[in-house]
Amino acid sequence: MDNLFEQVTPHFKLKELMCRCGCGRMGIDQDFLNRLEDLRVAYGRPMIINSGYRCPDYNARVSTTGPNGPHTIGAVDVRISGAEAHILLHMALMIGFNGIGVKQHGPHEGRFIHLDNLPGHTHPRPRIWTY
After folding, report:
1. What percent of the chain has pLDDT over 90?
2. How far apart are the first and last CA of the chain?
3. Half-sphere exposure of 27 (CA within 13 A, CB side)
4. Using CA atoms in the order 18, 63, 34, 17, what is the torsion angle rounded to 10 degrees?
5. pLDDT digits (tens, 9 = 90+) for 46-55
6. pTM of the entire predicted model
7. Half-sphere exposure of 104 toward its Cβ, with a 13 Å CA cutoff?
């Protein structure tokens, strides 16, 4: 499938952001993608996406947020740790992400920062939490 390597922004390919269950969906809206690209440019280094869009069925299987969690609307988990995580977290706040989850314990390959930009109807935004 050649379109897997299609650029959805100058720094991110469709393959990095689409659902990992095999359904081939990628439902992240353009506003979120633009903000993610702005973050990547400001950060100035590659950002490894552990998890991007998730279809509702896949999200219900892998997350406690069920079929309507942030990844079904527009969210990413960026693999990052240590001082780099601090830098990325600061930049994400400056660029305007209003949902930031931080997991910085355990093996380094399992550490990440979750980023979303959801409306604040269920929780006041901005919001930062830990896993």
Report:
1. 89
2. 35
3. 13
4. -20
5. 999 999 999 9
6. 0.93
7. 15
